[in-house]
């Protein structure tokens, strides 16, 4: 994105709540039921157009397709890459397991039951560029014009997230798996950037894998994985301008205790070595709202910007615009007002049907984000 010098730009992390009829169509498809592909495609296009229009009406500066046509922020890759299959395995989160009754209730939730991860059972290679080309075409149609990095973005999962979620049952080492995933994702990254969009790289593993693992995963020590994942990603995006990319890290977009979350100060020095110019991270929820102070200790490089989450996507409380403004001003005071972008902690519906809050409340939160950014901009400029 071009650096804006007169106000704080607004955006969000990516996923928006899918209409319920679209959720059911996508679940039926996942469950192996017969779904008319033309009906699914038409409904997806309609939902994307509706989502883009609503983002614009609210006043969001950099909009996206809501990831509405994807089954999830990471598992969409199965029709684009080779090498994944077999019986799915569950994930285990240390913070949830510390509370057995809560863990049992979560395990009974249909959303958690669907959160299973197939294994890597063969060479991970790029297979089909057409799905991302279709997504780009759908977004362009919804925008009504050719996109620019200043007006629209598109999400893509990182090699680190893929290798965290989907256990390695093929490669000799985790490092080999990571680099294979990086090479396989490279065409998608370059297609998104080549279409004139900001590429958002989603990497919850950069924090989440410190306390979460899928069964049978071969992840090494967390910090070793993080170092390897940053190297692999930088290789995958070497041809893309840093200013056209942003990198999202989070601790897992689920309602839970999160007391096992690794602190931002422990991972920030490594994260600042990523090529993308903008770093997106959780900064609104009760576990991470205090971590603005880290930027008083660790200097942000001159070529980086921050996109703190000023909206909690796991709580039905609608943030007061003045609180949003306060949060933004706090970061502006530490890194400079022209290097702050207003974002959300994470997506509103990272998987099909996985929505922690009422969709309409989610939209109201985005309205508060826009108003808070306006207040902060008036104060700062």
Total discrete domains: 1
Question: Number of helix segments?
Answer: 13
- Give the number of DSSP strands: 10
Beta-strand content estimate: 5-15%
- Please summarize the sheet with the most strands: 5 strands, parallel
- Sequence of secondary-structure elements: EHHEHHHEHEHHEHEHEHEEHEH
**Percent helix range:** 40-55%
What general outline do the C-alpha atoms trace?
Answer: globular
CATH class: Alpha Beta
What does this structure look like?
Helices cover 41% and strands 12% of the residues. With 381 residues, the chain is α/β, with parallel strands linked by helices. The protein has one domain: TIM Barrel. It has a 5-stranded parallel sheet with strand order 4-5-7-8-9. Strands 3-2-6 form a 3-stranded antiparallel sheet. A two-stranded parallel ribbon has the order 1-10. Strand 7, helix 11 and strand 8 form a beta-alpha-beta unit. Helix 7 crosses helix 8. The chain is globular.
What topology does this entry show?
Blueprint lengths: L8 E2 L9 H11 L6 H22 L25 E10 H4 L2 H9 L1 H5 L1 E5 L9 H14 L9 E5 L1 H7 L8 H21 L3 E5 L2 H4 L3 E3 L7 H15 L8 E5 L14 H8 L6 E4 L23 E4 L12 H15 L5 E2 L16 H22 L1
Parallel strand pairs: 1-10, 4-5, 5-7, 7-8, 8-9
Antiparallel strand pairs: 2-3, 2-6
Describe, in short, the structure shown.
The chain is α/β, with parallel strands linked by helices and 381 residues long. It has 13 helices and ten strands.
Keywords:
single chain; 381 residues; alpha/beta; TIM Barrel; 5-stranded parallel β-sheet; globular
């Amino acid at each position: 994105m071009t650096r804006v010098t007169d106000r704080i730009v607004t955006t969000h992390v990516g996923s928006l709540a899918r209409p319920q009829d679209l959720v059911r169509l996508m679940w039926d498809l996942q469950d192996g039921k017969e779904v008319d592909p033309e009906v699914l495609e038409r409904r997806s296009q309609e939902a994307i157009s509706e989502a883009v229009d609503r983002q614009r009406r609210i006043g969001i500066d950099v909009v996206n397709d809501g990831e509405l046509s994807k089954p999830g922020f990471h598992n969409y890759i199965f029709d684009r890459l080779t090498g994944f299959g077999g019986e799915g395995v569950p994930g285990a989160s240390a913070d949830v397991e510390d509370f057995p009754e809560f863990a049992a209730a979560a395990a009974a939730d249909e959303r958690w039951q669907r959160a299973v991860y197939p294994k890597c059972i063969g060479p991970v290679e790029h297979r089909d560029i057409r799905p991302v080309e279709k997504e780009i075409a759908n977004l362009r149609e919804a925008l009504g014009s050719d996109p620019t990095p200043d007006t629209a973005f598109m999400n893509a999962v990182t090699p680190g997230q893929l290798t965290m979620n989907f256990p390695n049952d093929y490669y000799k080492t985790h490092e080999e798996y990571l680099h294979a995933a990086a090479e396989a994702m490279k065409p998608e990254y370059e297609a998104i950037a080549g279409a004139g969009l900001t590429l958002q790289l989603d990497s919850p593993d950069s924090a989440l894998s410190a306390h979460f693992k899928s069964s049978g995963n071969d992840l090494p020590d967390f910090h070793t994985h993080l170092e390897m994942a940053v190297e692999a990603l930088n290789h995958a995006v070497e041809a893309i301008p840093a200013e056209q990319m942003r990198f999202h890290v989070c601790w897992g977009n689920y309602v839970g205790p999160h007391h096992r979350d690794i602190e931002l100060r422990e991972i920030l020095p490594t994260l600042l070595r990523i090529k993308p110019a903008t770093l997106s991270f959780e900064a609104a929820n009760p576990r991470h709202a205090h971590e603005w102070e880290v930027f008083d200790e660790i200097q942000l490089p001159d070529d980086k910007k921050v996109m703190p989450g000023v909206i909690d996507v796991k709580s039905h409380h609608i943030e007061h615009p003045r609180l949003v403004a306060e949060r933004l001003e706090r970061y502006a005071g530490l890194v400079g007002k022209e290097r702050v972008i207003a974002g959300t902690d994470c997506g509103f519906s990272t998987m099909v049907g996985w929505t922690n809050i009422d969709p309409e409340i989610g939209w109201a939160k985005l309205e508060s984000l826009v108003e808070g950014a306006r207040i902060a901009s008036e104060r700062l400029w």
